[in-house]
Automatic annotation (TrEMBL), chain A:
This is Glucosamine--fructose-6-phosphate aminotransferase. The active site is at 13 (for gatase activity). InterPro entries: GATase_2_dom, Glu_synth_lsu_1, Ntn_hydrolases_N. It comes from Candidatus Methanofastidiosum methylothiophilum. Keywords: Aminotransferase, Glutamine amidotransferase, Transferase. The lineage of its organism: Archaea, Methanobacteriati, Methanobacteriota, Stenosarchaea group, Candidatus Methanofastidiosia. PANTHER family: AMIDOPHOSPHORIBOSYLTRANSFERASE. It holds the Pfam family GATase_2. SUPFAM superfamilies: N-terminal nucleophile aminohydrolases (Ntn hydrolases) (SSF56235). Residues 13-360 form the Glutamine amidotransferase type-2 domain. One of its GO terms (molecular function) is transaminase activity.
TrEMBL record, chain B:
Residues 3-32, 83-112 form the 4Fe-4S ferredoxin-type domain. It comes from Candidatus Methanofastidiosum methylothiophilum. InterPro entries: 4Fe4S_Fe-S-bd, 4Fe4S_Fe_S_CS, ET_IronSulfur_Cluster-Binding. Transmembrane segments: none annotated. PROSITE patterns: 4FE4S_FER_1 (PS00198), 4FE4S_FER_2 (PS51379). The lineage of its organism: Archaea, Methanobacteriati, Methanobacteriota, Stenosarchaea group, Candidatus Methanofastidiosia. The keyword Nucleotide-binding does not apply. Pfam families: Fer4. It comes from the Archaea. This is Hydrogenase MvhADGHdrABC F420-non-reducing hydrogenase subunit B.
From TrEMBL, chain C:
Residues 8-37, 39-68 form the 4Fe-4S ferredoxin-type domain. This is Archaeal glutamate synthase [NADPH]. The keyword Iron-sulfur applies. Belongs to the glutamate synthase family. [4Fe-4S] cluster 2 binds at residues 27, 48, 51, 54. Keywords: 4Fe-4S, Amino-acid biosynthesis, Flavoprotein, FMN, Glutamate biosynthesis, Iron, Iron-sulfur, Metal-binding, NADP, Oxidoreductase. One of its GO terms (biological process) is glutamate biosynthetic process. Its EC number is 1.4.1.13. Its cofactor is FMN. It comes from Candidatus Methanofastidiosum methylothiophilum. InterPro entries: 4Fe4S_Fe-S-bd, 4Fe4S_Fe_S_CS, Aldolase_TIM, GltB, GltB_archl_type, Glu_synthdom. GO terms for molecular function: 4 iron, 4 sulfur cluster binding; glutamate synthase (NADPH) activity; metal ion binding. SUPFAM superfamilies: 4Fe-4S ferredoxins, FMN-linked oxidoreductases. [4Fe-4S] cluster 1 binds at residues 17, 20, 23, 58.
UniProtKB/TrEMBL annotation, chain D:
Pfam families: Pyr_redox_2, Rubredoxin_C. Its EC number is 1.8.1.14. GO terms for molecular function: CoA-disulfide reductase (NADPH) activity. Its cofactor is FAD. PANTHER family: NITRITE REDUCTASE [NAD(P)H], PYRIDINE NUCLEOTIDE-DISULFIDE OXIDOREDUCTASE DOMAIN-CONTAINING. It comes from the Archaea. This is Coenzyme A disulfide reductase. Residues 1-277 form the FAD/NAD(P)-binding domain. The keyword Flavoprotein applies. Residues 313-379 form the NADH-rubredoxin oxidoreductase C-terminal domain. It comes from Candidatus Methanofastidiosum methylothiophilum. InterPro entries: FAD-bd_OxRdtase, FAD/NAD-bd_sf, FAD/NAD-binding_dom, FAD/NAD-linked_Rdtase_dimer_sf, Rubredoxin_C. Keywords: FAD, Flavoprotein, Oxidoreductase.
Amino acid sequence: MNKFPREKDISGCSIFGLINTDGEKVSGSVITEAISVLHDRANGLGGGFSGYGIYPDYPDDYAFHLFFDSVKAKEETEELINKHFLIEYDEKIRTDNSINLPNKPLLWRYFVKNRNILSKDSEREETFKAVMDINNNIEGAYVISSGKNMGVFKGVGYPEDISKFYRLEDYSGYIWTAHGRFPTNTPGWWGGAHPFGLLDWTIVHNGEISSYDTNRRYLEMYGYKCNLVTDTEVITYLFDFLVRKNNLTLPLASKILASPMWVDIDRMEEKKRELLKALRMTYAGALLTGPFSVILGFENGIMGLGDRLKLRPLLVGKNENTVYMSSEECAVRKICPDLDSVYRPKGGEPAIALLDGKYV
Amino acid sequence: MKRRIICNEDFCIGCRLCEVHCNVKHSKSRDIILAYKYEKEKEPSRMTFEQKEQVCGSIVCMNCKDPLCIKACSMGAIKIEDGTVIIDTDRCVGCWMCVMVCPFGAIKRGDKKAFKCDHCHDEEVPICVLNCPNKALMYEAD
Amino acid sequence: MSSVIPEFIVDKNEDRCIKCKVCVRQCSEEVFKYFEEFDLIRIYNDKCVGCHRCEMMCPTDALTITKNNALYKENFHWSSYTINSIKKQAETGGMILTGSGNDKAYVSYWDRMLLDASQVTNPPIDPLREPMELRTYLGKKPDRITLKEENGEVSLETKLSPQIKLETPIMFSAMSYGSISLNACESLASAASKLGTFYNTGEGGLHKKLYKYGKNTIGQIASGRFGVDTDYLDTCAAIEIKIGQGAKPGIGGHLPGEKVTVEISETRMIPSGTDAISPAPHHDIYSIEDLKQLISLIKEATNYEKPVFVKIAAVHNSAAIASGIVRAGADVIVIDGFRGGTGAAPSVIRDNTGIPIEVALAVIDQRLRDESIRNEVSIVAAGGIRSSADAVKAMALGADAVYIATAALIAMGCTLCQKCYKGKCNWGLTTQDPVLTRRLNPELGSQRLTNLVNSWNLEIKEILGSMGINAIEALRGNRLRLRGVGLTELESKILGIEHAGM
Amino acid sequence: MKYVIIGNGAAAIGAIEGIRSNDKKSEIVLLSKENCISYSKPQLYKMLNEENVQNIYYRNEEFYTTNNVSTILGKTLISVDFNKKILLLEDDTIKYDKLLIATGAKANVPKLKGFDGETYSFTNIDEALKLKESLVNKDKIAVLGGGLIGVKLSEYLHKMGKEVILIVSSKGVLSSLGDEKISQILNNEIIEKGVNLLLSTKIVGAKKIDSKIELKLEKENIICEAIVSCKGVKPEVSPFEKTELSIDQGIKVDDHMKTNIDDVFAAGDVTEMYNSIEDGYCNIPILPNAYGGGYCAGINMSGGDAKIDSVYPMNSLQIFDVQMITMGLLSSAEKDEVITMFDSKKRIYRKLVIREGKLIGAALLGDIDRAGILNNIIKCNLDVSAIKEELLNSKINFYVLPRNMREVIVKSYIEGIK
């Protein structure tokens, strides 16, 4: 089976994310309950979750979640990992095999450390390269998450089945994101499900961006290979590119991905205008058009962002120390009927909730 | 409202279509082919096409502020109505005093009656201006 | 006696002709002559160039210009054009001259690419309801932006290279004062200024009357260096070094002395009545490092405040040349395809040299991306852009903006009779005869150009909307939204697009 | 404010329109010794023909009410007390604040030696009606004087079927124009059409013989049935003769149409105005001057400030089939350059008189189209040295003038600036 699709992936979806800003952990069953409300927005061809803070035993190791098609692929991958990293621990990802899902790959996780002591940036760059290397060059192996103290759990099936399969009730984390997928053209390949993960970035995404190829070709100039042909992939890479590689803040990255209109930029006071003008001109290849709402998970928070025309729904709700983001309010109400506040961010306005209690 | 048709000679291309359209507009049938090929009664054109070497242009009544033709008319047949100089053809006796004084030579001699550009007061824009292919004829109203 | 058969037949319908003689007065080729004695309009078919001026001016539609169907016996190998060319050459011993762009039946890749539209999974956007952004900045972009923080306020640290702002990604390509009339130049300048875009001086210098449009002027420096002085550099918003022209790659220009009027001589800064000759090469550019020096020189002379364009004809190894030009420091690279127009060129060059802009653009854009230098330069595609659809396809292939010139001339009246080199243009465009130049009222010309570009803008917005895109930069290089039809696998690969059905 | 206008001709009408352009309210009184509404003197000959009578009125009857003018018609002015600002009529007096004298001109009828019968004249309606009545059973009419009135009247009488003897003392008709060629062409035309034209003929006297008249000439005697004297007109100044009003050939006015007396203006055929070409004051009894002068006076009377254009003679007339327009000075002085063009086949004659490069007179005969362009060149005192040949030989063309000059002319007429 060809690992990567030739056609661009198109899907409709439901998304959900939550964060306990005090760092208190909740079980994976909570988010499973929420996303299962949105059953009808998926079609059983994809579901997935990401959890942060789930590996307290290996907090400083990169946790690689991998899909293997074959033992050979696993061996090749381990060889490659060993070249760059020290494997602290690895195991088969625990699953409930009574759940009937198609085309299950071999699921494995590794907790790894860099062989050399490096700065944080270099260390991440090395990891990034290794992930790209595995994904592009090893037949039948695919890294689905590669951050620290986090992991992505996804597959072909309804989200609630995926959750049961991965026994998410056994994990607890302070950040969870979830995705129910309605693809129209992907063969049942597990890698195509959301969240998409790179380093500690995970993206769940609803919508379809019309600027895909512009974004892809832009990213490819800077070493990213967009093999999956999914929007989620390029959006994740764009965040990685802008925030990690270009040192921009998340709010500024949001202003690039979902830029304000030129007429609005023209009206801004000079310094801000010049800044946004320069950002938009310089990173023109990163502008996302078309409908989308995404929930970005990262090491210390989540961010919700909708397209600049607000063509897809995004809701942010707060209850005490928990912030919820979702494409539908009912999913939030299911697990938290009484919210302190609810709002729907404007198109292009990021909603950011951080672990230290900051809630933007 | 004072109407004025002014020719910008920088852009007059000498096609003389203004005359053609003026003639058609003031013909009986108002149809170009009938007017030219079949109608018997024909007035000379109300437009005057001027040419000197490479420069050309069309001239019509300028609707002077203080029209000499009104002063000269021996029958009091010329007056200003709605800012437009008009000739009352019922009163006109063809004495050509107006022809004698019009500084632009814009008054023509018809069959015992003087006549001139009426600025197409029944049209939104004078027909010559409307049909000038190079917008050399400009229409002003104040 | 000429042995060349007339190309056109001028047919006058006597039932409709009112003998207004507008045809007699309008035809600069003197096809019509009026004999007062006989009240007869006599027609000379052999002089007709097929410009259709008479047909359009005739108030009774009495005239029809038709192709002479009684040409030589049909022959697929020896076309009438070929036979006539041979006869002309046998008569004159000279090169066959022509004007406008290559008219031969080479493949047009624009016509083999189709656009995508949104259905179900991704909503189209209604441009009447939602903002639709066409603004484009041309110039070198940095690889990354660095910021500084003062008193908790983040601001820009990177100093951007000079940029020019276009409210529409359509500009008017180089046509010199000399090759076209001053009224035509003014029409372009004024339209560019109304549209918030740019026109290009060609290498005709800048007439004093047009200085007021300086903010919308791209000043060209070509091998003749005509009209280049401090005022010129100061006034133009950007400077373009012209290396080559799509219609005649590798060929210089020649404005005959009789066309060098006093005003043209003043504008070009050459003696009046002398031939204005643009050499085939710049005599100070014999290789890429020389180009780099000229670019640096211009930047230095303009205080690093103006983007420098470099224009090349699309030829076989354009991609490598383009990469060199970027590395030589150009801010904008202009690629002129083989369909681009000219005022005068040997027809053998025009018809047989260069490559299609679609191909050149596709490979240049990809090459610059492969070398990770695409952000360092803007790409302008030129040469045969006929419609908003062509423009959109060019941008999807990777262009930042397009240049149009033939389309602009057509908007101003041109009917592509291809006799520009004769200097008798009946539409007052490619002539300096004062009787003819006044046929183009710049107010009207400017209005028509503005209308043309505005209607293309509307169409581009409509196309973007149908694709679910609402900013032009999200179209740029978005080749996924193109599909080929009737392309071979190799052609698809070169263009970087999938075939329809994939 | 009370305006009083004496007279009811073109000058009076001009004055009314001039006053009303500034002052819509104040009282205007118009006094005229003729008991009819204003009529056009050049059209007077139409009185002779019943069908055309309506075609001579200069304004319609509503004109006076529309402009709120009270008229006193058919009353003769005796004299004026300019100090008290009072007009003295036979049986009444009228006070005025501003006065316009527009009494026009009257016929100059020289006494014929030995003749005690009626000598008709033809300068106003009364005279015209009188002539008309007398013509009923008369067929042979002698017209004395080859000036404009005489020639025109002869033509009209001829067209009525009368036998006309036109007796002219000079060598040709319209000799006062000072152009022999014109006189010659017209002489031929008049003779050709059947008028008995006697040139260089002086009248010695006349004698009434029964119902006929014997007219004694130097060389012969001729018999006719009526005599119409058309020996020119003179300003009607009789009521002012004994006042301090300055009168020479006519009442002297400045370029604002003011007389030497405060608040008294004069206009029309009664005046003597500055002739820019002749550089002197003279009486130019033509309609454009009358209306224009009256209009100018009206504006100045009502508080405006208007200056009269330079005046000089001009006329447009048709004698039988000859159409002509003359303007300015045609009798040239030695220093003047005279150029002429004559096409005998088309009967087109054109003459230009140029003084120091400027056009000062022009005559157009046969082809009069666009004569106003030449008139304007005279009026604006434009130099024609470079274009005189073109003006003489081609169709008159506004574009003969240089562009800057044309632009100034267009602008000045559009904006009304002189």
